[in-house]
Amino acid sequence: MKGKPQVSITLLSGGTGTPKLLLGVRELLDDNLLTIIGNTGDDDTFFGLLVSPDIDSLIYLFSNQLDLEKFWGVEDETYNTLQQLGMMKEPTWFQLGDKDLALHLARNRLLSSGYTLTEAINESCTKLEITAKIVPMTDDPVKTTMVNEKNERLSFQEYTVKFREKIPVKAVHYEGSEKAKATKEAIRAIKNANAIILGPSNPITSVGPMLALPEIKNALIKSKAKVIAVSPLDSGKAFSGPAARLLKELGYEATSLGIAKLYKEFLDVFVISTNDSELRESIQDLGIKAICSNISLKTKTEQINLARAILTEIGINL
Ligand code: GDP
């Protein structure tokens, strides 16, 4: 679109929080200026098909198909295949919609013919005429697992979908992260960005796996571009999901200050709720500029306003 600025912005995204911010960013910047590094710690295989929930949400968002009620999956989805699988007494706890299956089948074909995950995602994006770059954090297997009270390790999908986040967690592991290599596309995106945005994603289960890759964390630390994050917590409560509970269970402060401490090695600016203004000074003491704002992303107006505030802080003239 004419008149939109020419910059290169890299976002780190996982789950449902950052996509809400992205809806606002897309109103202000062309998609082709954006690179989004997606968390793959949630990836899992169902019926032989690799499901990459955080990447898939990004693909649906940028191809204008995302279900904007749930912020995952395809809009106007149906579940005939799943129902049929149920009739065959197959496990159906993971919600694979009929439309969603198409992306997984296409990806499976590409992966089976030797494509890396990066290449397969790129191919799907090209076919769907997506101009933003969506890149996985790694092509290697990294699996976020949650340790329950019986010391059993559950996959992230078992924790979230099967047990609906209702069980206490003693520890979280990012299995494979010590050996996994970040994709060169992700590292390049961090190195070449004019600014880097960490959207309001769960710090433990969405951002955590990305930071567990030493190359990604080091690239963020070394980056000369401004790194700005939005808190997913307001007054110590998550807008959705188990972020606050998980932080507490793992011994961190379940506040925006607690999250600032987790990000302090690389974070320049943290956008927190106006309700948390009393945390501002303590966050600034960590060497991070704290900005108080309305951080709710429920409405289109809120999404655009927050995106505008962030882009203005980055120094982009809108
Ligand atoms: P989840 O905790 O498993 O749902 O992981 P996600 O990475 O999908 O996290 C969603 C995060 O986005 C949660 O921690 C929410 O608090 C956050 N979130 C959801 N809606 C909003 C919103 O309107 N504003 C902000 N700032 N954060 C949000």
- Spatial ordering of strands, largest sheet: 5-2-1-9-10-13-14
- The helix count comes to 13
Rg computed from alpha carbons, rounded to a whole number of angstroms: 19 Å
| Distance between the ends | 13 Å
- Name the structural class: alpha/beta
Listing every helix as H and every strand as E from the N terminus to the C terminus, the arrangement reads EHEEEHHHHEEEHEHEHHEEEHHEHEH
Domains, number: 2
Can you tell me the CATH topology of the largest domain? Rossmann fold
Q: Output the CATH homologous superfamily of the largest domain.
A: CofD-like domains
**Overall strand count:** 14
Largest sheet: 7 strands, parallel
The CATH class of the largest domain turns out to be Alpha Beta
Level-2 CATH architecture of the largest domain: 3-Layer(aba) Sandwich
Give helix % range: 25-40%
What would you note in describing this structure?
- This protein folds into two domains: 9-141 and 177-314, Rossmann fold (3-Layer(aba) Sandwich), CATH 3.40.50; 143-175, no CATH class.
- The chain is of the alpha/beta class and 318 residues long.
- It is built from 13 helices and 14 strands.
- The protein has a seven-stranded parallel beta sheet, sandwiched between helices. Strands 7-6-8 form a three-stranded antiparallel beta sheet.
- The two termini are 13 Å apart.
- The protein is globular.
- Helix 4 packs across helix 5 (117-127).
- The site of guanosine-5'-diphosphate has 24 residues, from helix 1 and helix 8.
